[in-house]
Amino acid sequence: MRFTSIVSAAVFASATLAAVVLPRDLAKSDSKQQAIDLIEDIKTNEATCNARNVAFRREYGSLSKEERLDYVNAVKCLQQLPPRTPESVAPGARSRQTLSIHYSGVFPPWHRWFVYTYEEALREECGYKGYQPYWDWAKYASAPEDSPLFNGDDYSLGGNGDYVPHNGPVIIPPEGVSGDTIPLPAGTGGGYVTTGPFANMTINLGPVGGIQGGAPPGPDGGLGYNPRGLMRDLGGAMNTRYANYSTVLNLLLKPDIEQYRLLSEGVPYTPEIGPHGGIHYTIGGDPGGELFTSPGDPAFWVHHGMMDRMWTFWQAINPNQRHREFNGGPYGHITWANEPPSRKASLGVPIDMGYAGDSTVIREVMGTLSGPFCYFYL
Ligand SMILES: *[C@@H]1O[C@H](CO)[C@@H](O)[C@H](O)[C@H]1NC(C)=O
Ligand SMILES: *[C@@H]1O[C@H](CO)[C@@H](O)[C@H](O)[C@H]1NC(C)=O
Ligand SMILES: [Cu+2]
Fold this sequence. Notes:
This protein has 378 residues and is mostly helical. It has helices spanning 2-16, 31-44, 65-80, 93-101, 107-126, 236-242, 245-253, 257-264, 274-283, 299-316, 319-322, and strands at 55-57, 161-163, 170-171, 182-183, 190-193, 202-205, 225-229, 350-351, 360-361, 375-377. It has one domain: di-copper center containing domain from catechol oxidase (Orthogonal Bundle). The protein contains 11 helices and 10 strands. A two-stranded parallel sheet has the order 1-10. A two-stranded antiparallel ribbon has the order 2-5. Strand 8 and strand 9 (360-361) form a beta hairpin. Helix 6 (236-242) packs antiparallel against helix 9 (274-283) and helix 7 (245-253) packs antiparallel against helix 8. Bound molecules: 2-acetamido-2-deoxy-beta-D-glucopyranose (2 copies) and copper (II) ion. One 2-acetamido-2-deoxy-beta-D-glucopyranose binds at residues 240-242, 244, 246-247. It holds the Pfam family Tyrosinase. Keywords: Metal-binding, Oxidoreductase, Signal.
């Protein structure tokens, strides 16, 4: 019994450690030296993700000023490269996918691959030497606008929007869905971002529209060209309510992927919008406050970095099981919250990046230390 499990472990290992040469004659030689050599061989095998080559994604505020500036400059560089989506397809290619990505079996793997694709573009197309940083939601929950991410200094991702008196966003259940309208807390900005590296940044796509307090839809249902200034509405009320240290702890303690995702992404058309929705609305404004076009705000990527960090850590608590577990509960299907009812997503379901990058399948991206990946979070 024990022997077979060792053999199957070895077979499994040989799939990833192809270049390691095992010693032939164990009895006759120095086993200490052979053990050391073999272990060194395994550790330095370049084809494998190991302690020497693993990349660490770090908290934005823990980066040095120089590292933050490198990131900011790479993001600016990427914004200036010509768009990949052909004009005939319109920039809405990704937006149209939005409804099958959220509350479906694809969400966590899709976003893991999306953030990785972005990180790779920063590194390969813009010479960035670091890795994707993340936004530690709870750390700055009382005043995210004063954090190193958004304080508006030269090393930040731009400041808050200028203050304009306003109400918070309101979630309105669509026709046919029961439930009251849900008013959410307002932030302390609401206007244009006028400080920091992304001051006066131009947004071209969207808004698609749909939430009250947000901007009305742009031309062509929000998929047309619609240049305007970046707006934000950062503030502590939304952040504290939806993404505090209890939220983080409770996420890590969730026993299965169904419970994990019900907290992480919340339940549609209820006040429990989870840290995912809560932080999108904490960024707020335009395009940050909108499901469809939020990746246009540089803050999107540090938020989804944290989303992936939480999932990575949750998986690390029981990797053997959790690197395969993804389609439990109502969010494990191929439609938005299983509406209309659909089959469960499988590991072979494609992750389609459209024109943004290469596509893959869920199976490939279930662990951050295997498949195409070799990264972890600090
Ligand atoms: C941004 O726009 C405002 C208002 O037009 C202007 O006062 C400010 O100088 C601009 N800032 C930058 C960095 O371009
Ligand atoms: C912390 O977040 C949870 C949701 O994850 C919420 O129920 C709780 O009220 C929040 N705490 C505070 C102090 O707002
Ligand atoms: Cu999101």
